[in-house]
Write a structure and sequence with these properties.
heterodimer, A: about 210 residues, mainly alpha, about 70% helix, B: about 475 residues, 19 helices, about 75% helix
Amino acid sequence: MLSDLLIALIVLTNFTLVATARINKMIQVAVIQGVLLGLLPLAMGLGRHLHIVLMVIAAVGVKGWLIPYLFRRATRKIKIDREVSPYIGFTASLVLCALGTGLAVLLAGNLPLAPGSQFKLFVPASLSTLLTGFILLITRRKALTQVVGYLVLENGIYLFGLMLVEDMPMLVETGILLDLFVGIFVMGIVINHITVAFDSMDTRHLAELKD
Amino acid sequence: MVWFLIALPLLAAALAFSINSVAARVRLLPATATLHLAGLLWSLRGWDHLAPGTWLGLDALGGWTLLVISVLFLFCAWYAPAYLALRPDRDNRVFVASFLAFLGLATLLSAARHPGLVWVAMETTTLATAPLIYFNHNRRSIEATWKYLIIGSVGIALALLGTLFLAYSAHMGGLEEPLFFSSLMQGAGQLSRPWLRAGFVLALVGYGTKMGLAPLHTWKPDAYGESPGVIGALLAGGVTSCAFLALLRFYAIVAAAGEIQFARELMVGMGLLSMLWAAVFMVRQLDIRRLLAYSSVEHMGILAFGIGIGGRAARFALFHLAANALVKGVLFMSAGNINRSYASKRLPYVRGAIRRTPVSGWLFFLGFLAITGTPPFAPFISEFNIAATALARPYLWTGVAFLVLLGGIFLAMSDTVVQVVFGTPPPDRVRTPYRDTLATTAPLVLALALSMTMGLWLPGSLTEMIRSAATLVEGHP
């Protein structure tokens, strides 16, 4: 099935993300993941519903064009240091990601699906993507890579939401996409301010406030 | 009418953003707040006649929460112009616009009848309030803003997953979209239990992050500590109330589905943990704003605890929402005044506030007494009644733990507060030109007076509204 293939690709992008050392490439992979997700409803054979086609266009537009644009704007000013600089090594990140995926499969096994559901892979893949987002958020130092982590986390949730795509009201879907976009927009602005204030976007500088 | 209440602050925010006159922009704050509260009081007459199948409408729970937020907002909005006048160095265009937009989004959240819409409103509230924390534009405030944005957004993303789990549990139960709260509660018996339980845990983690329940509160001391006092008031009484409402909506569905025992245990556990965590970090806390932030963690814990105990305690938890919002407003804004006078918010620099800024000093001290549960202020009534309910049989040990923690927090907080208010002012400390004026203290005096009035008497219609809201929270539509 085409949708299963896309989901397998999405899980593969998770592993690529945690093993990538350069910020630009990491952003690219996250964008590819977003576009794959955006196209998934078509692969699920839902292309006949007008509102789903509209949503596919909106999702691909936001995840494939607007968000990369915001990232480019944020990276333009930062020339010196393009390394991801994780707190833990890439091998360790990969092992964590694999463990996370295993955990996701276990968790998904405890949640029953509707009888005859065609979405057997959706729940484990979604939870695995979510955990990958967490790994990126926690183990990467750059403010920008944390935003990528947030984006991946949202991708995982979006994947889960696709199981309900036929029922979900348009208003809610639009709201979620819009919030994602505005969220990353605002984070981009704050990153700019961080870069100006600290001359770097390493979040280790953001450690002045504590008890 | 609900549309008007949502649109009014948002339009005012757009106007504030587009006009150049500072004087006119600042005047929009009290004007909008007053009009909003008046409109809300007008529309609350009909809270019990809510047509099913609508996207927006104020029921008892949403109406009560919005009333709390709107009243707090009124005090903040009457105080804010005086504060902004003290800060001519900072451009306040974004500040005023975000401030007003928050009220519109809080109204949207309170009136939303669909879990997805509640989520959208909560996330937008986070984004709209982030620029407020960044108002001071220094390194410390940027750090606070970043933590607020990232931790808040991740938390809310988990709440979204929880909302989707809820939708899937309804999908498995054969309920049809759009899943309004009313239809979810009516058809709660059909919801798939594993998805519902997992969804509630995610919602508790997600919205709990926004409320600032321990151990998800780590953004809170930074955000409250680095933003202006009036913003601390708005966050501690407004944004947290929004998140609490979003969580209660979920809780009500779980309760209606007959899983209330499961949800109760989680709420009581999180509540007590928050109080314990707050107590530990309040001991020898030198920064008065961070002290207040931990006090906010504590009071979110009290809210969760009260709801978890249920029955009479749930009613008083809803009452405590108002008590906490009002007194936190007084505390944060008077602490803001004291900081202005000393150009610091830390011991040992800030001492003897009662001599330098007598009115703010007294307000801060009385606010401290009120928030720690001294009669006749409103928090006493709610804390006393929650404890009394908890001490009844099956929850005896939780009631004892609750009282012990309240006592410990009183001691920990009083240590710092007494030094700040009554200590000897350090002779070498710079004295800024700030003096207490009518504009920076009158809103606080009124808020404290209102909290005292609520401790003694509440209009019958409001009591009825709280009762009805508590019934709804316990799963009886």
